[in-house]
Structures are given as C-alpha cells and as structure tokens.
What we know:
Layout: H1 5-17, E1 28-30, E2 37-43, H2 44-54, E3 58-64, H3 78-86, E4 89-92, H4 99-107, E5 114-117, H5 118-121, H6 136-153, H7 158-171, H8 173-186, E6 190-193, H9 199-205, E7 208-209, H10 213-220, H11 227-238, E8 244-248, H12 254-265, E9 270-273, H13 283-301
Parallel strand pairs: 2-3, 2-4, 4-5, 6-7, 6-8, 8-9
Antiparallel strand pairs: 1-3
Helix pairs in contact: 1-3, 2-6, 2-7, 6-7, 8-13, 11-12
Amino acid sequence: MRKSSLWLACLFILLFLASACSGGSTGSTTSSSSTAINVVAAENFYGDIVKQLGGSHVSVTSIISDPNIDPHQYESNAQTAIQVSKAQLVIENSGGYDDWMDKILSGSPNPNRLLLKGFDIAQVKLPENVHVWYSIDNVATIAQAITNDLEKLDPADAATFENNLQMFKQSLQPIQQKLSAIKAKYAGTPVGLTETIYLYQAVPLGLTVLTPFEFQKAMAEGNDPPADTFVTAENQITHHHIKVLIYNEQTVTPSTTKLENDARAQNIPIVPVTETMPPGKTYQTWMLDQLNTLEQDLQSAK
Length: 302
C-alpha cells in the first residue's frame, strides 16, 4: 500500500524520538559484539545468508520472518524505519517485491550505507517473476555480492568472509545434486503451480507446468485470475492432467484453496512451498526439504 505524506511525517518524527530503540516483533536479530556490522534484510532468507557469511562479525535484523505473513501484503511501520536508519548494509529483493523498503530508504538517506538488491544482481531471471532467490545459481551470485560488501565494511576480516563464502557455496552442492537427481527421473512430468515462485526450480527440473501462467501471475500479484484460467487449472486437476500440485502456502486465496481442495479430493499429492524461510531452517535446509517432499510425491504419483 502507498503511504500518505502525513504518515511519512509522523514516521520520521517517531524515528527521531525513538532513535535509541532497536529490535522488533517482526524481525530476528543476531549480535555478537558492539563492533559487528549492522545489517537489515527485508526478508529472512537474505538475513540467514548474511549470518552464514558474516558469522560473529554481523548483527542481522530480518524484517519479514513470520511464516503467516503474505510478503506481498506486508506494510512497514515506524519500528522498521528505525532499524533501517541504523543499518550499515541493507539487503532487499527489489524488482517490485518489497517496494516498502525503498520508501523507507528514501526517507532516511545515508551516503555511507550500502544497499544490495537481489533481483538486480541475479543473473537468472524469468519473465515477470521476481522470486530470484529460488534459483540456487542466483543465490550463489548474491552471496558473492554480500561478501564483497562485508569486506568493504570490515576489510580486516576479509579472509574470514572469503572462507565463509566458500563454505556457503559448497553447502549449496547437495541442493544442486538433488535438482539433478529429480530431473533425471522426472523431467517432463506434468505439474500444477498456484503461483510463479516455483518456476525458478520447476524449469531447471524439467517439469512440465500446465497451470496457465496468467493464473500464476495473478496470484503472485494479489489479483483475481482471469476466469478462464481458473477453469483450466481446475480441469487439469479434476481430469488428472497433473501429477502433483505445488502450492504456495503464503499466498492463499479462495481460488488457490479451491484448487488445493480439488487436488485432495482427487488424491493428487500437494507439495507445500513458502516464500519466506520457515522457523528453525537455514536457506539450504529449507530448499532441500521442499525438494525432498517434491521427490517423494513425484514418486508416489508415478
């Protein structure tokens, strides 16, 4: 939602008065010392990656970390603005996914603050699809950019950051191996998607996505889908044209719920995926767990 000028004025008054405050109920912060680099990540998967790369040399606040929040509907507040105003490094996805962060940054200019935008850095981009963190190749590229920024802010610990980066890249290998294994066995399998987010893995997996793109795109943007695309998606389920339904649990509408219920009624396996990282996970375990579930359901659907 767009904020009124009155809201912005109140926000920055609050920011000034509460500049000594820190933390917040929507974020998770890790700090090891007063000299740690202060990082704010718009989403918790970026925050987790920074923690892995920075270790004890970073203090990270992730703004969106509640799995019950639809990131498309998130609305920032004064506490978020305070956190961002103190950050030495801010990481957002951009591409229209988290525009609220850009509004906060424009109201709190700081020439010394570094800003990293995942979508802008990503090399693998699908048409009209900003969910670039679902590409493992993109995450490796973004991790390199994060490391570069950490080294600018803390040159003395550059060797540590480089070592952590190499370990991070190695930890992505099991995910790449799982993608290759699934592709080798199930490429060409027809599947349904309730949203565009999983295209970043469905495409490299070689899965055949039957759900109309216009339906997926409408769900991703929080709009009602064209009626004919919903009918097509529903028929694909009721006539068993798809083997599994990959369902975004954080973008739920009457249309997606109907497809989910139809799939259950037809005994079609449902693979739940999320936009933000669930509690107790790392980026790697999150991606790998979802792929393991997909593999199991593809096997049962054969």
